[in-house]
Amino acid sequence: MNAPEFFFTALDENCRPKGSRDPLGLEQIWSQVARQFVGNLTTVTRNLDNFIVALTGFAVAAQTGVPGAHNDARDALFYLRFERFEQLAAWARFRCQRPGVIGTRLLSARDGERGSGGVAVGAGAAARILGDQRRSGLWGLYSTALMGTGLIDSNRALTPKGREICAPFLACYEANEMSAYREAMSSPEKSVMVDPDSLQIAPLLDCTGRAELARRLLVEGGGEFQVELWDYAHRHSLKGIEGPQQLIGSLARGGEGVSDKLQAYASSVERLEHALVVVAAAFADLMGRRGKTLPEVVERFSAQKWGDREEWKTLDVSVPGRSFSRAWTTRVRQLADMLAALRDGRLTEFIEKLLAFHGHVMKERGGPAWVSFDTDGRIRVLMGNGRALKTPDDLSKSWDNDYFLGAFVSLWRQMPQMQ
């Protein structure tokens, strides 16, 4: 099993905030907590077909056509072969309307333009299915989870475990139905023209290896509670559970198949999530208060019952018994201090601490604060759109963050026996 700490510093770069979202840096908080549940998946790795194409694509990219010889995963040719394989699979899935294809916008446009002709696959702008296929396609989005499951290494070469899991898919790739793929992959040309309707994808995606790949992804991610989550899913069939809120809530209630340790952790995550929702809602309101003074802002919060201390008595961001990064600990300590003011009904101090917290997060990123006080003591908003402030009661029903459980539930439902 792989230790979940790998992801504390190597979270999928395609999902990290770039300064245009997550102005409070809350992803750093919930994502580290989430790694105890699921150590390998990300918020975007939700499609089992994509995992099959990615893993098989890495195997095919290594092939040279010479027995016993392989392309080095560090060489440019390895990526170029993977790029072509991803395009072939994307066209096949698009034409037969399989869900989850990355790049459908360009595929749809080119499909409308080609008439009855073929399409280009390979290197070059005419073949690319995304503006930046390397970063935004399967190479960038799905590799982290495959590494975390131990199926590929840091260069995207299959590990011994990965070769074992991929063997059924490679056998399907060698079937007669997929000869068009092999022909396109064997061409030495920079790009080749193919008839997308000649590309059969079902033999690969529905082959016998599908269930075992899904099981490995769901069980062997290294999260402390990941095996227990898998067992819980099979015991209860995840009835009535559509995502993280329902799953964590069910675990927090305990019962058959839930250990005391998991129940306690899920309960602490429920409390943490409520606190994060409250902080995010307060900041969202401030983004719409341009030109308002602090007393005017406090008056608005009071009108929405934010000054009622009874409403906030359960606010808690502590997650006991776990060791997280120093940055996580610092940020949570700051949140706890801010929320203590809210629990005590000190709205002015709460708002001041919230904006100071936001300013610190943005300073770490090397950018200006979105919201701050100007020299006249009025709210200054550089970017962001405000949202109407909800009451504490409305917020008690809200849930913002994924905890990587959305991907877990989605993949579990795509296993053959769940269809």
Largest sheet: 2 strands, antiparallel
Tell me the span between the first and last alpha carbons: 28 Å
Quick one: overall form? globular
In order across it, which strands form the biggest sheet?
1-2
Question: If you had to describe this structure to a student in words, what would you say it looks like?
Answer:
By secondary structure, the chain is mainly alpha-helical. The protein folds into three domains: 15-38 and 263-395, no CATH class; 48-219, no CATH class; 226-258, no CATH class. The protein contains 20 helices and four strands. A two-stranded antiparallel sheet has the order 1-2. Strands 3-4 form a two-stranded antiparallel ribbon. A hairpin with a 5-residue loop joins strand 3 and strand 4. Helix 3 packs antiparallel against helix 4, helix 3 (48-61) crosses helix 9 and helix 14 packs across helix 15. The longest helix has 27 residues, at 260-286. The two termini are 28 Å apart. 40% of the residues are buried.
